[in-house]
Amino acid sequence: MGLLAPGTQGVWCSVAGPTLLGLVARSGFDWVALDAQHGEFDRGALVEAGRTLTAAGCPFAVRVGRNDAGDIGLALDAGAATVVVPLVDTVEEARLAVAAAHYPPGGSRSWGPFAPLWGREAPEPALASPQVAVMLESARGLANVEEIAAVPGVDLLFVGPFDLALSLGVSVDDLLEGTGGPLATVCHAAESAGIGVAAFAGTPERAQVLRARGIDCLAVATEASVVSAGAQTLLARARPGA
Q1: Does 4 reside within a domain?
Q2: Which residue of 67, 71, 182, 201 is most buried, as measured by CB atoms within 10 A?
Q3: Looking at the annotation, which residues are catalytic?
């Protein structure tokens, strides 16, 4: 079982500031995910974030910008325990993601972790076992989900509800309605393959809905929403008569 495990709650981070990341790392979430697809994490920012989170003893995941060996290798070299690969629509794409995340002979990853540069020991290549999560966020991926889930080395199906809803031509609320439908298809595929399921919720309310649909490994908030909610709570407490 990897970092993104059943019953865990994570925070999704798009802002690359190391000070904010350090605060988030100590805030009580089970894991932190860095968004290098739609967030501020370019190569330099990702390396700095990896240094910050490693020093804080905070395991983290990275959603890479694309299904690319260089992007996946960089995320893992920076210390990610889990790599989340977007827009995996076919078995071939799932196999590429798995190969990029593992050293030979099981894959094609190049050796070069940053840990020794930070005064830490890197794991032996034979002991490196990153969690590979592939994102289901398109109608095509959904149609191939049984085969994708069965690819050796795929550890987790990660639902991207916003893109999946767009691809299916429905709203996010419609996607989450009912006990059947696309989410049930993804959960069934994962169960059949003996792997896990996770999803981006973004809000506690949406997290509750996804949990009721059988997905309980969730990014329950973004760091921006955590800051906003904290500010609103403190301001409310500071108002006269509160």
Answers
A1: no
A2: 201
A3: 38
Tokens 């893109």 locate to 163
Query: Per the domain annotation, does 28 fall within a domain?
Result: yes
Residue 229 lies in a domain: yes
CB-CB contact of 101 with 95 (8 Å): no
In whole angstroms, what separates CA 142 from the centre of its chain? 18
pTM exceeds 0.85 for this model: yes
Give Cα separations from 140 to 91, 134, 168 (angstroms): 11, 14, 9
Provide the greatest CA pair distance for the chain.
67
How far CA 201 is from CA of 160, 205, 211, in Å, comes to 9, 8, 10
Q: Which domain holds residue 137?
A: 9-238
**Residue 76 structure tokens:** 């893992």
CA 100 to chain centre: 17
- How buried is residue 121: exposed, middle or buried, by Cβ count under 10 Å (0-12/13-18/19+)? exposed
Q: How many domains does the chain have?
A: 1
Tokens 């289901």 map to which residue? 136
In a domain, 231, yes or no: yes
Tell me, what CATH number does 192's domain have? 3.20.20.60
Matching residue, tokens 């909610």: 229
